[in-house]
Design brief:
heterodimer, A: 3 domains, two-stranded antiparallel ribbon, B: eight-stranded mixed β-sheet, five-stranded mixed β-sheet
């Protein structure tokens, strides 16, 4: 059984909203108790005293005042699920919307982790929290006893290239056309299993296509051809695509990956209609370029302030000294405007180190994978963001203009 | 006035005068850094004469110690007899003014090689140059390991030792008694006298390192058994003089390599270059049309010296033809902290290429063609991305004439060799090799050693291979000729091993 303990859509009966949370904390509620109340209220029946309270402050008070009956209740529920051989999972997602400043946010995350730790002894009651890396990176959220126990259960939700390709096969094998399924069966000799659901059929990606990178490479190169140019010296599509979509931590987002390939397919159809493969290498380059705009938008959704910081850098050339960047921010008055931004309507967080000025912001951008600090101290920005935000790259040779020879 | 300032001054003077002169100007900088100008033809008519005179005066007086006396300041193409001047395009363009170009031709010692024109034609066979700023970075050993790897794939590899000041590859691959009669130094000396034909077939021997492999490793060492006193010959190697008079060293080397290629028909040629900034290595890097592996270790010296070299190439008019033939190889990557070591090296290497040879990527990327030769820090296929050769204790005492520890070679060279195969060997060749494996397995002959079937490429060649050492060697040395060609042929005919007399050439 899966229930939601916090999420993007408002649901005042299920969990407190951002404003309620901020009120509760201002009134001195322990964040750990707030989340424990949320968890408990999901486990009890409709006529339980916790549920009967009219508002969240009262529910938290009840939970605080009645520890023993709750211990008993949790124990009973756990045993009941155990007897049935099933589990109960509560999800906490979209926590970046639970507070609009970092002090409150850190207290809430810390409380949530404590509440999750409290639930650890139960075998069948599970707490699952989706957190952004900047939400757990702070020392202030993990400074309670045994915090390491809960952090040790952390799973990094990154997308290694292998899994991006797994996702691609998932889509392609489930397309209407039989072509790829047939190819995988007859040319690669793998079974493509059919899963019949009530209304639809799902084709399952053969396990080897998800794990075996050599095989993935072979199959992808069947679609693209072997090289990213006329010859091998420009690299190989299988590695080229994820590499060119990656941030400084080597992470590429699945959305931009799929978008790049979709764009490449359309581009090939319109520009190279007679090409013997579905994806032409020039089209892949165009697709990746388009996807870098998507990545920028994605980033904008999660971190609205990134745009404000990157806009003044348009037209700059990297790698460059950090002074050049902080000067651009100064000229633009970027930092001061971020500080004075009214508690923004969507309630998004400002950069975590805004208080430390330009160097603090630099750290935030480095953590996000947008800035890379070179060993000589200069700043580099990987292609996926450099192109998306309109920056150039240094070079010793002026590029050949369209009219010039060379 | 100093060396650098002189050129700037000369350039400015040329810019000021080029309009009146109404002709292209080539500034010629000599060994000492003194500059004069080369014009196409002697002045005709008063107006031209006046213009030339005033130009000569300005140049001569403006340059001080870095100038020539006024009467020697100008030279004319029509007056140059026997003096070998570079082609137009070999000089770098300093300025364009009033529709005319002002170019610089640097005459370093033997030095025009650093300016030599990269070969544009695709080469058959493929040539690879191994270059390093300093010794002891595993350059020669890598060449040997690569040669063995290629022989395993059935390739016929010729490896030429051009590290004449510190020969190594030859003696590593050929024990004393297997050396050919003559070496590279002998050829340069004899060739200058028009006598090269006498030794041309006696400079290459086959290495036993490939004895159990389908391919073959041919070695052209820098010296042979009959070279005798090495130093006097070495001193005469860099003469810019061929059998028919003045000839750039580059051209001479080119002829030597072509000669070997024609007579031995290798699939791949590995040229082991001399260390550091020397004209002979410049020729190898630029003029041989070779893919060049630039060995680097993470040190200030490495990047400083490569900086000089790349800065020079940056001015080169053919920079676009040479830059995509350069590849950084990280030599002796230490056992510990490999990742951070390589990260650092990658950064320095990136800087080197970016500041000198890569295209600038302007900010308004929408209009830029995607084909720009520009790479981000971490790009697999970029020239600057180091291909690592890992330090390995066993390789410190590596003796190629003894058997090779395959596991050790794999640990140290696996990544490098994989890259090499992917980058330079056509996929079908590799696949061809692998299919032999799989076919054998599928036929169920598991008892067969799982190695590709030797291809008797040599025996199938119609022309006689001149790699057998001549009779004299057989008389004086051990009676066996190690040439694989002979072996194959002999096996085929059921005869004795070496039978050069019968085959002839």
């Amino acid at each position: 059984m899966v229930v939601v303990g916090f999420g993007e859509t408002p649901c005042p009966q299920s969990y407190p909203s951002r404003d309620t949370l901020s009120r509760l904390i201002a009134d001195g509620c322990d964040p750990r108790l707030i989340w424990r109340t949320v968890i408990v209220s999901k486990l009890v029946d409709d006529d339980h005293p916790v549920r009967l309270q009219s508002h969240w402050a009262a529910r938290v008070r009840w939970v605080q005042a009645n520890p023993e009956p709750l211990d008993q209740l949790l124990f009973e529920r756990d045993s009941a699920f155990d007897a049935r051989g099933s589990s109960w999972i509560i999800l906490f997602d979209a926590l970046d919307r639970s507070a609009s400043n970092w002090t409150t946010m850190n207290r809430l995350i810390r409380g949530l982790l404590e509440a999750a730790l409290d639930m650890r002894p139960y075998r069948r009651l599970r707490v699952k929290c989706f957190l952004r890396s900047d939400q757990v990176a702070e020392g202030s959220v993990a400074d309670f006893p045994d915090a390491s126990k809960i952090l040790a259960t952390k799973v990094d939700l990154s997308w290694p290239a292998r899994e991006l390709y797994g996702l691609l096969w998932q889509y392609l094998l489930n397309s209407d056309a039989e072509t790829l399924r047939e190819h995988v069966r007859s040319n690669l000799g793998l079974n493509v299993d059919e899963l019949r659901l009530q209304t639809s059929t799902v084709w399952r990606v053969p396990d080897r296509l998800n794990r075996d990178e050599k095989l993935q490479r072979t199959l992808f190169h069947t679609i693209t051809g072997p090289f990213m140019g006329r010859d091998r010296r420009r690299g190989f599509p299988y590695t080229w695509v994820p590499n060119h979509l990656a941030d400084t931590h080597g992470r590429a987002s699945p959305r931009s990956f799929l978008a790049a390939l979709r764009e490449a397919a359309e581009h090939t159809q319109s520009h190279y209609p007679n090409h013997d493969r579905p994806l032409h290498y020039e089209s892949i380059k165009c697709g990746v370029k388009a996807a870098s705009r998507i990545r920028v938008t994605e980033l904008q959704e999660d971190y609205p302030w990134v745009h404000a910081l990157m806009k003044p850098l348009k037209g700059k050339v990297v790698p460059c000294l950090f002074d050049e960047i902080s000067e651009a921010w100064k000229q633009d008055d970027t930092l001061r405007r971020l500080e004075h931004q009214p508690d923004d309507q969507e309630g998004r967080l400002p950069p975590a180190h805004l208080g430390e000025g330009a160097t603090g912001i630099r750290e935030d951008l480095e953590r996000l994978g947008i800035f890379l600090r070179l060993s000589d101290g200069r700043v580099n920005i990987p292609d996926v963001f450099r192109v998306g935000y309109g920056l150039g790259r240094r070079g010793g040779v002026k590029p050949v203009s369209v009219s010039g020879g060379g | 006035m100093d060396f650098n300032k002189a050129l700037e001054t000369a350039r400015q003077i040329a810019v000021d005068h080029v309009g009146e002169l109404d002709t292209d100007i080539v500034l010629v900088r000599d060994l000492f850094g003194r500059i004069r100008a080369l014009l196409d033809h002697l002045p005709k008519g008063k107006k031209e004469k006046d213009a030339t005179k005033s130009f000569a005066k300005a140049l001569s007086s403006g340059l001080g110690n870095y100038g020539y006396p006024q009467r020697d300041t100008l030279i004319y193409r029509s007056n140059l007899e026997g003096l070998c001047l570079p082609e137009e395009y070999q000089a770098s363009v300093l300025a364009t003014q009033d529709g005319h170009e002002i170019r610089l031709h640097d005459r370093l010692l033997t030095g025009s090689e650093w300016h030599a024109e990269p070969m544009r034609e695709p080469q058959r066979p493929k040539r690879f140059t191994f270059f390093s700023i300093k010794g002891g970075v595993g350059r020669s050993t890598t060449a040997i390991i690569l040669a063995r790897h290629l022989a395993r794939l059935g390739k016929r590899v010729l490896i030429v030792d051009l590290d004449l000041e510190s020969p190594g590859v030859g003696s590593s691959l050929l024990p004393e008694e297997q050396l050919p009669e003559y070496g590279v130094v002998d050829w340069f000396v004899e060739d200058a006298l028009g006598n090269a034909a006498a030794i041309r077939d006696q400079m290459v021997a086959s290495s036993r390192l490939a004895d159990d492999l389908p391919g073959e490793i041919l070695v052209a060492p820098s010296y042979g058994r009959r070279t005798g006193d090495y130093l006097p010959k070495l001193g005469r190697c860099y003469l810019e003089r061929g059998p028919n008079g003045p000839e750039q060293w580059t051209h001479r080397l080119q002829r030597l390599i072509e000669l070997h290629e024609a007579s031995h028909q290798p699939d791949i040629v590995l040229l082991d270059s001399r260390t550091g900034l020397h004209d002979s290595s410049a020729a190898l890097v630029l003029a041989m049309g070779a893919q060049t592996l630039l060995f680097a270790v993470e040190s200030r010296q490495t990047w400083k010296v490569y900086g000089f070299l790349f800065g020079h190439w940056r001015q080169h008019p053919s920079v676009r033809d040479l830059r995509d033939k350069l590849w950084i190889v990280a030599g002796m990557v230490p056992e510990t902290d490999r990742e951070s070591y390589l990260d650092k090296l990658t950064e320095h290497s990136w800087n080197l290429f970016m500041e000198n040879l890569y295209d600038e990527a302007p900010p308004d990327t929408e209009d830029v063609p995607t084909e720009g030769f520009t790479f981000d820090l971490k790009e697999e296929a970029a020239p600057h991305t180091p291909r690592p050769v890992f330090w390995h204790r066993g390789l410190q005492t590596f003796d190629p004439s003894s058997s090779l520890d395959v596991q050790m070679a794999d640990a140290a060279y696996g990544a490098f060799l994989t890259w090499f195969d992917q980058a330079f060997l056509p996929e079908d060749e590799l696949r061809g090799h692998r299919t032999i494996h799989s076919r054998r397995r599928s036929e169920g002959r598991f008892s067969m050693p799982c190695r590709p079937i030797p291809r008797c490429t040599v025996a199938l060649r119609s022309r006689a291979s001149p790699i057998c050492p001549p009779r004299t060697q057989r008389r004086s040395g051990p009676t066996r000729c190690w040439s694989k060609a002979c072996e194959v042929r002999a096996r085929a005919s059921g005869g004795r091993h070496c039978s050069r007399r019968i085959i002839g050439s």
